[in-house]
Design goal:
alpha+beta, 218 residues
Length: 218
Amino acid sequence: MGCIETDSEDSDIDHDPTIYLRENFKLSHESNPYTKEIFIDICQEINGAEIIIGELKGHFFNLCKLYDDKQLNNIISLIHQYDEETFDICNSLIKETSCYKMGCENIYHLDRFFIFPQYRGSGVGRHVLDTFEKNIDLFMENNVRYIGLFLDPITDNLEYDSMESMSREEREKAVKHLKLFYSSLGFVEMKTNPNYMYLDLNHLNLYKRKLSYEVIYQ
């Protein structure tokens, strides 16, 4: 499955306390002490009711614990826990950043980021991803250094494949818009594979304060 669709034309908006993220514990699953598949609902309070307006899904890999437990020789089998796309993105991310060296850095694969079309615009996608970036450690219950993703237009249909459903020209245009969107949030193209992008969370602007814990879990 690819990532990602919000609205690549989203403009900046101020923090909106009616929009918040909440882990879906019914769907999230910890395969072993070194990895976890995490589902997050994107919620908005509208007229006093909570509405799920989108979703975030991804895979966390605790390479620091793998290193501490002297299990780095199992790193390939670890990132192969899910599917070929996750493996390829994480393998490229590890090569790109050398995050397995010098005590290791934890990584996260953002597999799916989708906001339903009727709730897009006015910077909602930008606000959600910015919130997630700043609070990812809370959701993973661990420090995360790098986020990797595959630029691929998606829909609410989990079986949708843009490579089959879109013309080459349409897909190239959509991917270009997505690349601009994620670049504006700090992501850069991987040299190991230009179809992938990654974010070094240590390079985020430090002057932007973290949003409160209550906003995330209310």
